[in-house]
Amino acid sequence: MPSYSVALLAPRDPASGSGWQRILDQEGVPHHLATSAADLPGSALLLGEGELPEWAAEHIRAGGVGVLSGARALPDHEPGLAQRVRAVISGFTTPGGRWAAAPGPVTLLPRGTHPARPGAGSFRVHEDRVPKYDSDPDVLPVLATHGIGRGTLLYSPVALTELLMAEGDRLRRFSELSLVTERVSAIDKADVADTLLALLRAGFRRAGLPLVRLGRYPGGAPSVLIVRVDVDGAFAPRTQMLLDATTAADLPASFFVNADLCRAHPGLPEEWPAAVEVGQHADVHTAFDTVDENLRNLRAGAAWVEERTGRTVRSFVAPRGLWNPALGTALRTLGYPYSSDFGLDFDSLPFRDSSGLLQVPVHPYSPERARRWADETGEAPLGAAETAAYYEAVARRQIALGRPVHIYGHPEVLGQMAGVVVPALAALARAAGLAVRTLGEYAAFWQRREQMRLAAAYDDATGVLELKTAAGERDGVTIVVEPSATTSKVVLDGTAYPVVPGRELVLEGTR
C-alpha cells in the first residue's frame, strides 16, 4: 500500500522557522521533510515557499501536485508572460470572504493564471481606489493554479508562511465586531493560517486524496471555552465577584495575578476553589529585553502570588502584548508550560513560538481597554448586557471558524459585570456543546495532542485509507478524515469505519 505523507520542502530562511511546519503541526497532518527527489515518491503532495528547486518541479511535471506559498517565480510559465515587479499590500480578502490585515510585499506573477477554485480570495495592487469606466485593474487571486507538465502547482503570490511567522505589533482595530483598538499583532495571523489551510485543502482535492488531521478540541467538541482573568489590580471586592460568578456557573476559570498592580489595588480572595487555575502575571507589569531581567520579574511575581494565595504557581500569561524571545527563554528556563500574548498572535490555534514555548492565543478585547478607548474617543462604553452580547458574538464567530473561544478581562470593570456576563457565557457553552476548560487544561490537552503521531497509507486502487497511531490511548484527541471522491473506507488501528461521501469522518479519541 502506498505511503501517505506531505513532503515539506526546507524553508527559505530556516532561522525564522517554517509557517508550513506550524500549519502541519497544528492540524496534525502526517508529513516529512524533503531535501531531495529521493524523499518525494509516495508523497501525497509537496509544500514549499518562494521558489521550487528543480528536482521538486520535475516531480510535478511527472504528474505530482505542489503547493507554494509566497510564489516568487513559476516554473515553465508561458513564454512572453514575464514576471512583473513586487508590490506592497496592506492585506487581502481570504477565501472565506474575511478581510485579513497582512502588510507586506507580493510578487505580481504572469497573467494567465486563474483561481484554484471560485471564491479563492483576492488582493488589490491599487488599494482604496474607486473603480471608474467599468475598470478595476489588478485585482488578483490569493490562491491560484499553474500547470507544470502533467502536474499542477497551487500557489499564493502572498507570502502567507512568512506572515504567519513574523513578529511585530501595533495599536489597531482587531475585530470586525468592535471599533475598540488594542496593541496586537500587526498581522491577522488566524486568517493567514486559515488561508494556508484552504491552500492545503485545495492541494489534497487536486491530488484526489483524503485530508487527515487531528481534532482541535477535547472529545471532538466544536470549540473550547476558556475564561481568563488578568488580575491587574484586585479592586476589592471585584476579583471575588468574578470568582464567585464563575464558581456559581460551574465555569472553570483562570486567574493570572500581577503583583505590582495588586499591591496598588489590593483585595485578593482569601480562598481559591480547586477547580480555579491561579497563575502569575509577573511582578512588574511589563516584559524586558534580556533573559535575566525577565527571570527576576518572573521569580518575584511567582513568589508574591504564592505567598498571597497559598497556591503553587506554574502558569503565566504575558503582560501588555510585548512578547520577545528573551521572555520565552526565561519561561522555558523556569519550566512554565505555556503563555499567551496577543502582541504575537490572537484568535488562533495554539502554536510553538520561536523560543519553543507553547502559545495559546486569546481574543484581545477587554472591558477595561474598551472603557479607556471610549474615554479617548468620546464613545459610550458598553454596559454589562452589551458586553455579554459582544462576547457571545465573538464566541459564535470563533465556533463558526473552527477556532478556540478564549476570552479575557480584568476585575476593574469585568468584575462589576460578572453577574451578567459569566452566566451568559456559561449558557452559551452548554447550548453550543463547547468543551469548557481552564487555560492550563486546554494547554495540557494540546501538549498531549502534539505527542500523537499518525502513520497513514492510501490505496488509490481501492480507496482505502489506513491509519495507525502510536502506542497508548489517544486521551480525548479525535482524528478527522475529509474523504476524497474515491475514498471507500478508513481503517484506524485495525478497525474499519464507513465513509459517507462529502462528509467528514470523526474518529473518537478514546479506545
From TrEMBL:
<feature type="domain" description="NodB homology">
    <location>
        <begin position="236"/>
        <end position="338"/>
    </location>
</feature>
<dbReference type="Pfam" id="PF01522">
    <property type="entry name" value="Polysacc_deac_1"/>
</dbReference>
<dbReference type="InterPro" id="IPR002509">
    <property type="entry name" value="NODB_dom"/>
</dbReference>
<dbReference type="InterPro" id="IPR011330">
    <property type="entry name" value="Glyco_hydro/deAcase_b/a-brl"/>
</dbReference>
<protein>
    <submittedName>
        <fullName>Polysaccharide deacetylase family protein</fullName>
    </submittedName>
</protein>
